[in-house]
Task: structure prediction
Amino acid sequence: MNKNYYAILMAGGVGSRFWPVSTSSYPKQFHDMLGSGKTLIQKTFDRLNTFIPTENILILTNERYNDLVLEQLPMVKQDQVVLEPAMRNTSPCILYASLKVQKMNSNAVMVVAPSDHWIEDENAFQEDVKACFDKCQNESVLCTLGIRPTFPNTGFGYIEFEKESDESIKKVSQFREKPNYETAKQFLEQGNFLWNAGIFIWSAETIVNAFKEYQPSQYELFQEGFSCYNTPEESNFIQENYAKAENISIDYAILEQSQSIYTLPATFDWNDLGTWGALYDKLGKDNDKNAVVNANTLLVDAKGNMIRTPKGKLVVVDGLEDYIIVDKEEVLLIYPKSKEQDIKKVRGQVSDTFGEHYA
Amino acid sequence: MNKNYYAILMAGGVGSRFWPVSTSSYPKQFHDMLGSGKTLIQKTFDRLNTFIPTENILILTNERYNDLVLEQLPMVKQDQVVLEPAMRNTSPCILYASLKVQKMNSNAVMVVAPSDHWIEDENAFQEDVKACFDKCQNESVLCTLGIRPTFPNTGFGYIEFEKESDESIKKVSQFREKPNYETAKQFLEQGNFLWNAGIFIWSAETIVNAFKEYQPSQYELFQEGFSCYNTPEESNFIQENYAKAENISIDYAILEQSQSIYTLPATFDWNDLGTWGALYDKLGKDNDKNAVVNANTLLVDAKGNMIRTPKGKLVVVDGLEDYIIVDKEEVLLIYPKSKEQDIKKVRGQVSDTFGEHYA
Result:
């Protein structure tokens, strides 16, 4: 394996639209959402670990998930888990982790990737990331893997690339925020738009230089700790300074500023597993299109439902169609699939009304 | 309290239409179905115990429920629990218990009553039973409390009494099996029909004599053990002989044969709590007519549902109407109220498909 290959796994999210299975104390990435025997972060780690050395994979997460990471990824050492002492969106934590990587290996190229997405074709994923690694080793550019849109999804940001390029890795002309339906349809018709899946590839040097150029105060804040990183002094420095960082996303801080952004249209199937409906799409179905995880079921006149329970629970349903039925010890959710986007809101209401421990 | 007053509480049923809360290992009468803080058998015992001495109340049940009875009714001694070593319907166990009572007190009058019904007005119940006790102390008659029908229920047997009587306790002309809807409507129009609630009152002497006359072989079988009853020898005798008894109901064995049956139209409200819908009727409702036991709920567009869970479980429902939603550790049931009679069948299917322990 190439010793210059690094990965930063983003594992700090809450996955609130997957409530009640995903909660702030035990979020989605730490669950076996597909009933495959592995949690999402385990699957993501394995996918990267086929071509990136174990010790070169850093897990970026919140302090409260430290134990979950170490438990689910026993091959990972504590110093590979990069903990955010405060929630400051993706920019500060990526800069911080990138500086750590740069200090380990000034020739490092790295992939930054979410820990909770579905990607089945591991070889295609590997080939795509390696193609970007090659480009980033040779040029001072920032790359992203874009997903070819299959329908006018209004829930994702889009990447517009320059049509005329006949390279496989295209120059990005601009990032576009989540569009309305009409705009999304136009994007698809134009053919040079990809979904932004949050998968980025760059060298440590290039991303650090980009911060220096576009976010100088953030760069200064974290650069000051460079001598402490990967030493026992790091923790104190971070505890003292991290919260001072501006709350800003990597997209807004860097990607929308830089002129050297490239995108590779991914050659693998991808699903963000962002909602129960997205999970439903990826699961096997019975004859009535019910997707069932963990439960034993007796279903009559029940069609198109997404059912998930603790292992071995018996579920008897008569007459429900296109419902999300999720049972999880102290919470039972029976909710129309068509309203899945509201589950995030429901989670908030539950937290306000019945207490945070439910959320 | 009158030392001649006795009661036989029938507590051997399974309550299969209340599955999954009611199971063969933990039936309905041992559950707090109403969320009142007391189980049905506890409420029934208390109701009788206001006018019948504690030690005169026998509990007739299956061997497997012995521990549940002693646990839920700690004032009851083991020798008050009359155990059926085999399922032989109501006739053999009532004869056996009646002989035991007769041996304790040859002047005993007793009420035989189910342990799992809902009766709110305890005073009216007491007055009605006492009125029958009086009659049975003075005359060799068999009495039953009949329930004034409120609608043409096809799920109950009916008691037809002689219209011309102006006594409060009426002579029964005949018992009628569960009618079809048209017949049930005629019953209600005629005005001299009552629901048979399985509440019987008689003296020990009269019921034993009735068995002697109408079921001589059953009488002989159990009379032979008379010297053993209420002694250490009883258990052996019953183990050896009980299973030989004919499987037959008290209605068929005695009540439909005897010419000396009387009925008192009950002056209290009654509900057999036979189905989830019957329970629903007796529970308080929210503004959308949802009845909730034990759960914390967040309900949107949810109307007329019967919801029951373990204590404190959070239930979020959107868009369901007239459903039974029951969660019980390893089983979740989501079933239309209109099909509540099929739950018994579902329980059977579950037992066949997934194993008896679910049923």
Notes: The mean pLDDT of chain A is 95. DSSP finds eleven helices and 17 strands in chain A. The longest strand of chain A covers residues 193-203. Residues 100 and 229 of chain A are 6 Å apart (CA to CA).
